[in-house]
Structures are given as C-alpha cells and as structure tokens.
Q: What sequence folds into this?
C-alpha cells in the first residue's frame, strides 16, 4: 500500500512524499520504503504493477529502481 510522510530539510518547511508498505496477510509489515517520490500517482502505479505482476519481495527494489530510471 501507499504510505505518506513529511520530509524536512535543514529547518525549511516540509514536503509530502510517498512510499510503500508491504504487509503479510496477518498485517505484519514485511517491507517499508519511504520517500520514493512526491508524485502519489507514480507510487500508486508502482504498487499496482507489483500487485498485478505478483512481484516477489526479493525483486521489489529492482523493479522500483527500473521505474525510477524510466521516469
């Protein structure tokens, strides 16, 4: 799922970023990657691809890296 966080830099006002959280069926967190992008729709698209293609936890970071390079 998409997670939202606020990032602050050297006393400046913060900005909103989006990341992902992967949980097991029982709700336990398996993976958290914060601050992927300020573009929520990009992160939502990444989550959709991971879900529809059933991307393994072992490959999620590789898929993310490829998508960021294509952005």
A:
């Amino acid at each position: 799922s998409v997670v939202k966080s606020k990032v602050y830099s050297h006393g400046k006002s913060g900005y909103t970023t989006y990341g992902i959280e992967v949980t097991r069926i029982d709700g336990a967190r398996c993976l958290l990657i914060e601050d992927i992008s300020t573009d929520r729709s990009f992160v939502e698209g990444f989550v959709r691809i991971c879900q529809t293609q059933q991307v393994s936890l072992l490959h999620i970071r590789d898929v993310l890296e490829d998508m960021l390079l294509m952005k």
Remarks:
- The two ends are 20 Å apart (CA to CA).
- The CA atoms of residues 39 and 59 lie 22 Å apart.
- The chain has two helices and three strands.
